[in-house]
Amino acid sequence: MAKATNLGFPRIGERRELKKATEAYWAGESSLDALRASGAALRRTNWAKQKAAGLDVIPSNDFSFYDGMLDMACLLGNVPSRFDWNGGHAGLDLAFAMARGTDTAIACEMTKWFDTNYHYLVPEFRADTTFTLAGSKVFDEFAEAERLGIHTRPVLIGPATYLALGKVADGSGMDKLSLADRLIPVYVEILERLAAQGADWVQLDEPVFALDLSEAQCEMIDAAYAALAQVKDIRLMVASYFGELRDNQVLFTGLPVAGLHIDAVRGAKEAAAIAATIGPETVLSLGLVDGRNIWKTDLAAARETLAACQARVETDRLELAPACSLLHCPVTLRNETRLSHAILDWLAFAEEKLGEIVFLAKAADGQVDEMHAADNKRVMHRRRHSELIHSDLVKRRVGGLTPADYRRRSGYAARASQQSAKLNLPLLPTTSIGSFPQTIDVRRARADHKKGRLSDSDYDVFLKRQIDDAVTLQENMGFDMLVHGEFERNDMVEYFGEKLEGYAFTRLGWVQSYGSRYVKPPIIYGDVQRPEAMTVKWSKYAQSRTDKPMKGMLTGPVTMVQWAFVRDDQPCSATVRQVALAIRDEICDLERAGLAAIQCDEAAFREGLPLRRADWDDYLDWATAAFRLAAGGVADATQIHTHMCYSEFNDIIEAIATMDADCISIETSRSHMELLDAFVAFDYPNEIGPGVYDIHSPRVPTVDEMTTLLDKAAQVLPIDRLWVNPDCGLKTRGWAEVKPALANMVEAARRLRGRYSQTG
Ligand code: GLN
Ligand code: ZN
What is the pTM of this model? Predict the structure, then answer.
């Protein structure tokens, strides 16, 4: 019999119970016991849901109050010394301290989990790092489930992934892999203890198999699993996910373990070949249900992959699963009362996906639920042919695009002279990245308007007053290029998505981003188009209040797509092109409305990079093309800005140059301009605004500090192509620190300007 299994269930709760519980605890409003009880209630609910759905294998330790990598660090006693850990039990408060920092210790770094929008806490390694069994969460949760009558398969991050995702934090340049000898014995101990507790299987997550692995990594994996395989009375299910195995296939299928899980969604093409090469006893877990998108599975297509694998592996050795943990999906469709029925019909969140897994497991056994199959077939057909998805207008427009649409009329040099004639900016012009503080007033007015407590016209008046104040403030400070402040926006993607056709929004479709921070990504379900202008009203109004140039402010096409659940019925490159056309129309409308400069933010440009190097060029091609298409419709004299909230550009600088924005602003203040290196080395041809004000901190930088930073930038880049701006938008800051910081920034620019114009 094939088994229906799961790799992990969303931990946040149907109504964000986890967020409420953890934040109440952090705020000192509830006790640790109360928090623990909330966690237990969530786990109990989640196990019960999975059991009721008919799963044969249910995971434990997939729950976390913050993050699974962090839990792993605690379990392994891998706690940086600054947290004053005494070597005893590494519990929840220690984990929170590591995640959030304390008065005396800065938090561990956080970064993106592969190519998802989930963030994990980065393990820290030093030459003297040791590991010791220090946590008990995995054992406690296994026992807790047993007491509830649910025999679970505990989940751990595998050793290869744990080492690969950590960073060497002591500057020693040590080889992380050399830690394997210290690490593996603790894994052995953990497995032995789970075996003694009565666990018969353990799932080891090894998504590193979807990455390019070095030879040394492969050797480490070989040795590590040879050691883990020695543990008696426990079977290991090693889970690869987030992509194809490709050249790692031989290593993976050769692991001396009882079970192997593969991502048969992204890796559908490989599945049968892998099935053919696994050992004669090995259990194959087929991840046929997409764990990170929200569409119903095409069950007929999934069954074809299944059949191809069944031809090579006996059904008894098959498990059916989601491709990866369902952590990256919202919890349930049950509360989505505002989505149209047609769209609702196409969706499956985590709970609904469990049903698909059970269906497939039964189908593998020859018990096809024909009603379910027929219904799914009808849904797939309806979705494919739905008028909601297809717009002839959009398709015709995309079809008619020519290479000229992806190009500005002239090259940068010719544009720059026209722009400088039009804008008449001083040397080192000052500007900001877009948003100003979203004060309680701003958020309250937006909420009141949304709930109908504030009329459209009153809200209008309110927003105009905010813009007026922002304009006056910037004029008084002496800014050269102004922004309107983005007071009308909740979020840089949601605001635009709500105004575009082809986008849908859920009520409670939350997904954990990090800790208690969740996001509610929009769903791009159909051809995207812009029924009417989205920002022109505000930008035009703002420009009417000043003689200084006002910068129009938009989110770029790549970011719009990257931070959404995207269509799976066409490639991302096609979806992004449609979004680019909508943004292009907005840019042209802004130009027509009198905006001489328009910024198009691409905060998610870099994070869209595929996991494998071999796939980068293809991505960079369509991503840069999308930006160029969005920006390509304006006159030479209109200045296009872009902004990216980071500065690791070394490996993509060529693509950044290909985007051909007239000016790019980036984050550089914390690295003391070191991160400009890529731009210097590459001889970046256009204008750059290296951030001089770290907006992640409430600290007000002094004039001197910012002058020093600017000076540094001016040493390595042509001064006439330098801008002066903060690292990023200011929406999360308060006016109390923003005002003096911006005033200092403008003063720093003035000082340097004086100095450089004297020396000529
Ligand atoms: N214009 C946006 C803002 O200032 C940019 C935000 C971002 O890059 N994340 O808020
Ligand atoms: Zn930013």
Answer: 0.95
